[in-house]
Design a protein that fits this description.
Length: 165
C-alpha cells in the first residue's frame, strides 16, 4: 500500500512539474511580439470558425452531418484505394521480382553445372591425348603443350564460374 502512495506522489509531482514548465515556457514565448500576434490571429480564426460551425449546426444540423459523413466516407474510400494499391504493388513485386530472381539463381546453377561438365570433358580429352602412344613417342614438347591447354581451359572455366557469383 505504501508503494502505491509513493508512486501516486511521484506521478503527482511529475504532473505538477510538467504543468509549471509548460506555463513558464508559454509565458516566455509571449514576451516576443510576433509570437503574441500569431497567437491572437490563431485564436480569432479559431473562434470565428467555431462560431460559423455552431451556426451551421443550429441552422441545418442534417446538412452538417451529411457533409461530415460524406467527408469521412471519402477519406475511407481513399484509404481503401491506397491499401489496394499497396497490396497490388506487393503482389507484383513478389511475383515478378522475386520469381525472376529465383529463375536467375536456377539458371546460374545450371550454367555452373554445365561449365563443370565441360571442364571435366576438356580435362578427359587432355588425358586421352597424353595416353595416346604415338604422341608420347613423338615429342615431349607436344605433351607439355597439351597440359598447358587443359590447365588454361580449367582456369578459364573457374574464372567464368566465380565471376557469375
Amino acid at each position: 500500500m505504501t508503494q502505491t502512495t509513493i508512486e501516486n506522489q511521484t506521478n503527482s509531482k511529475l504532473l505538477k512539474g510538467i504543468l509549471i514548465g509548460g506555463l513558464v515556457g508559454g509565458a516566455l514565448t509571449l514576451l516576443d511580439s510576433n509570437t503574441r500576434n500569431k497567437i491572437k490571429r490563431s485564436a480569432v480564426l479559431l473562434k470565428d470558425n467555431s462560431m460559423n460551425m455552431i451556426e451551421q449546426v443550429k441552422e441545418n444540423p442534417g446538412e452538417v452531418k451529411e457533409q461530415m459523413v460524406s467527408g469521412v466516407k471519402g477519406a475511407t474510400e481513399t484509404i481503401k484505394e491506397a491499401f489496394n494499391d499497396v497490396e497490388t504493388l506487393y503482389e507484383t513485386v513478389n511475383e515478378d521480382v522475386v520469381g525472376k530472381v529465383s529463375e536467375v539463381k536456377d539458371t546460374a546453377k545450371d550454367a555452373t553445372n554445365e561449365l563443370k561438365d565441360i571442364s571435366s570433358k576438356v580435362t578427359d580429352a587432355g588425358k586421352q591425348l597424353k595416353e595416346t602412344p604415338s604422341l608420347k613417342s613423338d615429342n615431349e614438347k607436344s605433351e607439355k603443350e597439351s597440359d598447358d591447354i587443359v590447365t588454361k581451359s580449367e582456369l578459364s572455366n573457374e574464372k567464368s564460374i566465380s565471376s557469375n557469383f
